Amino acid sequence: MNEQSPILELRGVTRNFRVSRGLMRGTATLKAVDDVSLSLRRGEALGLVGESGCGKTTLSRILLGLLAPSSGEVLIDGQTLAAADPKARARRIQPVFQDPYSSLNPRKTVSQIVAAPLDVHAIGTSAERERTVVRTLDLVGLPRRVADSYPGQMSGGQRQRVAIARALVMQPEVIICDEPTSALDVSVQSQILNLLLDLQKELGLTYLLISHNLAVVEHIANRVAVMYLGRIVEVSSTTRLFAEARHPYTTALLQSVLTPEPGLGIPDTHLGISYPNPMDPPSGCAFHPRCPAMMDVCRHQRPEPLRDDHGRVECHLRPRHKQDQEGNP
Tell me, what CATH number does 231's domain have? Predict the structure, then answer.
């Protein structure tokens, strides 16, 4: 199969939740994911970025089969994910969660934690599973002696390596990393990111890297999808996005990235602290109340996605700029 063909694909995926408004006020619909179409190409690392609450984790749970979309469909190698056997799906797609402190059972040894997927799928004999565990621990840079340790006896970086080993032990094709370094010390984050890159090269893995930290995404991703209030507002190659963001929200996120340059102070997105209420989203373009380039059309008309050789962007500014460059009104 072509390395650039989609291994995972979302087509018009929406996920709604019914949320209580409070005593005697009934319920309201929260649209956590709103008509998202996105493809994950075989062998790539796709970054998914956006502020907390924008729908990134809900999207990852849909891809993992933990949530069903309210509408739309998810495909794996062209086949509907919902129709796939859950165990077969788990063999192909595995998660690495944000917090290694809470994602590992403190009452299990490292060996038991990493072997758990093999036990559930009844893969190999007891001796074969033990050898597989040792081999996988070595793959993530952990010595054999930690196999009998408990998570509480390990550092945060070691725990995350255990979590990665647990994800790899089934030899999956896709790893969904949900903020894999945000709970770690800064000094350890780069080690884990470099480990993920090394594993991708060695094993031919495909990554979906979910993060609010664009600096982390720049380090590991080939492409970036930017999410705002449940929608994908921009998709571009990492190089292109960091050099020339096309959506004002992406620009604001880039301006908020900390740099080592002295004297700059804490960056400001200039978007204010108020995030829109997802149960009562703004009309038109959802970003318009916070957008420094807002036009009147943004208030009442949702922009259509503009697709070109550079990717995709959902913004009224882009078609206008394109027409201006071509000399059209």
Answer: 3.40.50.300
What are the distances in angstroms from CA 81 to CA 123, 176, 182? 23, 15, 29
Mean pLDDT, all residues of the chain: 87
Is the pLDDT confidence value at 6 over 50? yes
What CA–CA distance (Å, rounded) separates 34 from 305? 13
Residue 36 lies in a domain: yes
Domain span at residue 171 reads 6-325
Looking at the domain assignment, is residue 181 inside a domain? yes
Residue 20's contacts (CB-CB under 8 Å, 6 or more residues apart) are 26, 27
Total domain count, the chain: 1
Strand order in the sheet with 79-80: 27-41, 6-20, 71-76, 79-80
Rounded Cα distance between 112 and 92, Å, is 21
**Which is nearest to 113 in space by CA: 178, 49, 159, 46?**
159
The two tokens of residue 262 are 């002295």
> Model confidence over 167-213: pLDDT tens digits?
999 999 999 999 888 878 888 999 999 999 999 999 999 999 998 88
* φ/ψ of residue 18, rounded to 5: -90, 125
Q: Nearest to residue 63, comparing CAs of 174, 145, 199?
A: 174
Which parts of the chain are beta strand (E)? 6-20, 27-41, 45-49, 71-76, 79-80, 93-96, 174-178, 206-211, 223-228, 231-237, 306-308, 311-313
What confidence score (pLDDT) does residue 309 get? Answer: 85
pTM: 0.88
Q: What is the pLDDT of residues 225-272, one digit of tens each?
A: 999 999 999 999 999 999 999 999 999 998 876 544 444 443 445 565
Whole-angstrom distance, CA of residue 329 vs CA of residue 325:
10
d(CA 246, CA 225): 12
User: Do the domain assignments include residue 148?
Assistant: yes
**Does the residue 1 lie in any domain?**
no
Q: What does the alpha-carbon distance between residue 246 and residue 108 come to, in Å, rounded to a whole number?
A: 48
pLDDT confidence of residue 273? 54
